[in-house]
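Figure 6 in text form: structure in, sequence out.
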């Protein structure tokens, strides 16, 4: 045992990855469900159960990610004032002109115990060349990590890889394209088995590509016949194979780890595809639910499909589609499977619950009180589901067959980013800050 502690001292300040690291959007397994921990709180406000608050300059809506004792977050700082993001639904055009002035694309590393800045790095300096969604920022993506390196994607700009101590290892610039309604990019990167996967759907030349995690060299790039999807890809490790799943407005698709298409099907998805796929109970869950569309589907799929799935006789007639609900999907948020229940948080301030195994309705739309609108995806621990509104109010919902609000926790600032959880600490990113929330 003494040798173990001596060894730790010798290798310091190397960051040691641990099992509960929060390594990508919605956590290492992409479900938003984290292990119970005695310090994870049910109640908080701007001072109660707050270990520290760190100011983060600029704007960014990516979730914080955590490796060992370090938290990483990206942001873009503008030298001139521009249109400030606001909550609510935008049913029209984006900001049609690029933001004004010089911008600084930044990466920050914070100590998770104190909130102090360990290092920061300016990845790029210049003027934006593409517009963006009025609610978004030029740092909309959540970084990811393989436990040794940090990968930061600024979607219309480039992919950057760092050592965890802040050394820039490599970068791959991205040729910016026109996106639907000038909303800009938003899909986060994922890393698996030595490769970083990036999806860039746009109106000119959409693609999914892989970059070598160590060197940054492109491994493969596959064109995509898509124009309007922003979902983060999902590496589905099922009992038959490992595949990369990407939903799309035209086709939902799966790819092999070398970029070959494995299967696809037309899910009659929403015109805007934003929720990210994930797996639970051996099934894959996919959804899209733009509020202006009549068909807002949620699918649960079994592994093993190949080629084009036949759905002409109905979605549930295909043996690989376990169940399907035609109007159950949210717009921006990603649903959550916790236990045997699938919880769907709607942007307009409702929640529904379905049986995750069968798709049967457990309870229909229940309105939050006080009312709120939502962009951040829900998360769960300790028998509770947590929903963060754009006003900074977190609703604590009792998991189970009945909709019951147990508590409401205010932070009173615009919140778009999905929170993160690691080491008994909840990290909530607001417009200007990162809160570390934990019970003493």
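Output sequence:
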């Amino acid at each position: 045992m003494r040798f173990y502690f001596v060894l730790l001292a010798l290798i310091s300040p190397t960051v040691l990855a641990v099992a509960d690291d929060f390594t990508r959007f919605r956590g290492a397994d992409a479900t938003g469900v984290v292990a119970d921990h005695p310090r994870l709180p049910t109640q908080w406000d701007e001072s109660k159960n707050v270990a520290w608050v760190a100011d983060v300059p600029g704007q960014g809506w990516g979730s914080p990610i955590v490796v060992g004792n370090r938290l990483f977050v990206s942001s873009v700082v503008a030298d001139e004032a521009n249109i400030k993001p606001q909550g609510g639904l935008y049913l029209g055009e984006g900001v049609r002109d690029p933001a004004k002035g010089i911008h600084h694309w930044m990466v920050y590393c914070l100590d998770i115990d104190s909130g102090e800045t360990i290092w920061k790095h300016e990845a790029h300096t210049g003027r934006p060349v593409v517009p963006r969604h009025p609610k978004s920022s030029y740092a909309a993506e959540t970084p990811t990590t393989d436990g040794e390196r940090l990968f930061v994607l600024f979607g219309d700009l480039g992919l950057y890889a760092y050592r965890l101590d802040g050394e820039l290892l490599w970068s791959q610039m991205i040729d910016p394209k026109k996106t639907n309604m000038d909303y800009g990019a938003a899909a986060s990167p994922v890393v698996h088995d030595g490769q970083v996967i990036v999806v860039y759907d746009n109106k000119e030349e959409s693609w999914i590509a892989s970059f070598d995690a160590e060197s940054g060299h492109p491994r493969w790039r596959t064109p995509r016949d898509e124009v309007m999807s922003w979902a983060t890809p999902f590496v589905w490790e099922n009992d038959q194979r490992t595949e990369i799943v990407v939903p799309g407005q035209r086709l939902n698709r799966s790819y092999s780890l070398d970029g070959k298409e494995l299967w696809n099907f037309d899910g009659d998805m929403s015109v805007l595809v934003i929720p990210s796929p994930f797996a639970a109970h051996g099934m894959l869950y996919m959804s899209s639910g733009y509020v202006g569309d009549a068909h807002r589907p949620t699918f649960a799929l079994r592994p093993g499909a190949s080629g084009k799935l036949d759905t002409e006789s109905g979605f549930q007639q295909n043996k690989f589609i376990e169940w399907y609900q035609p109007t159950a999907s949210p717009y921006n948020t990603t649903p959550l499977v916790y236990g045997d229940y699938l919880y769907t948080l709607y942007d307009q301030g409702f929640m529904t619950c379905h049986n995750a195994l069968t798709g049967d309705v457990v309870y229909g739309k229940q309105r939050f009180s006080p009312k709120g609108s939502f962009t951040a995806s829900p998360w769960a621990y300790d028998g509770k589901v947590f929903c963060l509104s754009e006003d900074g109010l977190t609703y604590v919902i009792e998991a189970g067959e009945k909709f019951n609000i147990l508590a409401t926790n205010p932070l009173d600032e615009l919140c778009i980013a999905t929170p993160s959880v690691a080491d008994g600490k909840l990290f909530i990113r607001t417009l200007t800050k990162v809160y570390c929330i934990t019970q003493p």
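Caption detail: Residues 2-437 form a domain with the Methylamine Dehydrogenase; Chain H fold (CATH 2.130.10.10).
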